[in-house]
Amino acid sequence: MENFNLNALVRENIKSLSHYSGLREEYFDKNAKFLDANESPFGTWNRYPDSFHCDLKKRIAEIKNLEAEHIFLGNGSEDLIDLMIRVFCEPKKDSVIVMHPTYSMYEYYAVLNEVKVEKLRLDENFDIPKADFDVLNLQNAKILFLCSPNNPTGNCVKDIEYFIKNFKGLVVVDEAYHLYSSENSAIDLLDKYSNLIILRTLSKAFGMAGLRIGIGISSVDIAQLISKVKPPYSISNASKQKALQELQNLDAIRERIRQVLESRNRLHENLLKLRCVKKVHSTEANFLLVEFNDAERVYQNLLQENIVTSLKHPEIWNCIRINVGTEEDNENLLIQLRQQK
Questions:
Q1: Are 63 and 77 a contacting pair, CB within 8 Å?
Q2: How confident is the model at residue 37 (pLDDT cuts 50, 70, 90)?
Q3: Which of 84, 109, 82 is nearest to 9 (CA)?
Q4: Which among 1, 198, 222, 331 is placed 20 to 30 Å from 265, CA to CA?
Q5: Please, which residues have CB within 8 angstroms of residue 92's CB and are 6 or more apart in sequence?
Q6: Distances (CA, A) of 16 to 12, 25, 140
Q7: Are strands 319-323 and 287-292 parallel, antiparallel or unpaired?
Q8: Which of helix, strand or coil describes residue 292?
Q9: Per residue in 80-138, pLDDT tens?
Q10: What are phi and psi of 13, to 5 degrees?
Q11: Please, is 309 exposed, middle or buried when counting C-beta atoms within 10 Å of its C-beta (0-12, 13-18, 19+)?
Q12: CATH 3.40.640.10 residue window(s) in the chain
C-alpha cells in the first residue's frame, strides 16, 4: 500500500503507553544480583522471564534470515491476533475483514473486542473473489486477515500481493502452515509493503504446540509497537529454554516435515480409494479436507472408535478436516473408514 501511515491506524489510547519493564534487561549478561521484583530467591524458575525474549528472537531471526528487530513474540498466535486488534481497532467503531471459511480465532478476538467482522466468502475453489474484496475494501476496515495456507481448506491465497498492495489498512498473513507448502512466503514482500504483518508459529511444523510461542514478523515500527503493549511475561522461561533447545536441531525438524509430507501424500491417495469419500481437496498444509457421502455419520462413527477429527459440515458441506498423524494413526483411520459407506 502506498503512502501507508501507521500512526493514523493506532488507537489514541495506545500511543501514549510505555512498555512495562524494569532495568534488569540491561543486566542479564552482567551476573547481576536481582533484588527489584519481589521474587523468591529460591527455586529453579524463581526469576521472571526477559520481557523482550531477546535470545529467542535472535535465534528465530537467524533461522528466518532477518534482523531480530523485525520480530515480536507472543503466547501463541492467538495472543498476537488479540494484541493487533486491540492496538489498531476501536471497539464499536472499527472493523476487520476475514476470509470465510477460515481460522476462527480472527473473528473470535474481533467479537471479544467489540470490533465488527466483515466476511469475504470464498468461491467454489476456496479462492477470494477479487471483486468482492474490492467492494469490502471501500469500507475502510482496519485489518485484513489472510490465512495462507488457509485453515480449514488447505490452499494458499492466490495473487496475495494484490490484496496487500490494495488494502487500505494492515494486512496480516497467517503462515502457520507455510513450512508444509511449496509456495513462496509473504516474508519476501516485507521490504516492499510497510502495512504487512506475517504470523508464524512454533506449534505446527516445529512440533512445539505445547510451548505456546507465536511469531510476528513486520516492519520495525510495527514490531516495536506490538512489543510495547504486549504483556511483559507472556512467554515463560521454561517455554523459551525448551524452544531454544529444539531450535538447535533444524535437521531433525526438516526430517519430521519430510515425513509428514510423505504421509500426507499416501493418506491422500488411500482416501481416494474409499467408497465413503467423494473428494479429497488438494492441500499445502499438514491436514486434508475430505468430502464424504455423509460426513456427520462418518464423524460420529470415528468418535465411537476414539478417533477425533474436525467436522466442518455444514459450513463446508459434508467435509471433515483430518490432521496427518503417525503412520499408525493414519492406518487406524483408514481401517475404520473402509467400513463406512
A1: no
A2: confident
A3: 84
A4: 198
A5: 114
A6: 8, 22, 24
A7: antiparallel
A8: strand
A9: 999 999 999 999 999 999 999 999 999 999 999 999 999 999 999 999 999 999 999 99
A10: -70, -15
A11: middle
A12: 6-248
pLDDT band, residue 2 (cuts 50/70/90): low
Superfamily of domain 251-337 in the CATH hierarchy: Aspartate Aminotransferase, domain 1 (3.90.1150.10)
CA distances from 53 to 27, 50, 249 (A): 14, 5, 20
Q: How far is CA 181 from CA 12, 155, 189, in A?
A: 39, 9, 17
Question: Which amino acid belongs to residue 255?
Answer: E
Grid cell in block for residue 75: 503466547
pLDDT band at 34 (very low <50, low <70, confident <90, very high): confident
Residue 309 in grid coordinates: 477429527
Task: Looking at the structure, give the CATH architecture of the domain made up of residues 6-248.
Answer: 3-Layer(aba) Sandwich (3.40)
Location of C-alpha cell 516474508? 187
